[in-house]
Amino acid sequence: MKYVLGVAGLLAASVAMADIPRFDVEAHCKEVSEFGGSSNMVYNGCIRTEQTSYRELQNVWAEVPTRTRNHCLEIAQFGGASYQILHGCIQMEIDAAERPATFSFD
User: Fold this and answer.
1) Can you give the pLDDT at residue 94?
2) Rounded to whole angstroms, how far apart are CA atoms 87 and 68?
3) What angle do CA 94, 77, 9 make, to 5 degrees?
4) Of the N and C termini of the chain, which has fewer Cβ atoms inside 10 Å?
5) Any signal peptide, and if so, which residues (predicted)?
6) How far is CA 8 from CA 12, 48, 66, in A?
7) Given this model, what pLDDT does residue 21 score?
8) From residue 9, how far is each of 2, 6, 51, 90, 92 by CA, in Å?
9) All residues at 6 or more sequence positions from 60 whose CB lies less than 8 Å from its CB, including other chains
């Protein structure tokens, strides 16, 4: 019985890992908007950009390889948590994987 519960717990953890993490967007955007002074325009623009990035992540998150997710989460949370940075990192990593660079001695 413990084994079955353990497997069920692992399955639940796997499903939870597929969820996009929740960032404190308001705090992030407040910090961004207060850099060099306080700006309502910068705050509102930040919120809109974060919202757009979050919505775009909802469409692809489940298909993003775990290794890429973990790497990009670290990047996105460095110095504050940002869906825009997370989304951009994932896009760049996927693009790079599809077009590996080559080296030439020419």
Assistant:
1) 93
2) 11
3) 80
4) C
5) 1-18
6) 6, 38, 20
7) 95
8) 10, 5, 31, 28, 33
9) 90
- The structure tokens listed for 70 are 């973990």
Sign of CA dihedral 6, 12, 15, 17: negative
Residue 36: which pLDDT band, with cuts at 50, 70 and 90?
Answer: confident
Alpha helices (runs of H) in 1-106, residue ranges in sequence order: 2-17, 25-34, 40-60, 66-77, 83-98
Start-to-end CA distance of the chain, whole Å, equals 64
CA distance 103 to 22: 40
Q: pLDDT tens, 37-77?
A: 899 999 999 999 999 999 999 999 999 999 999 999 999 99
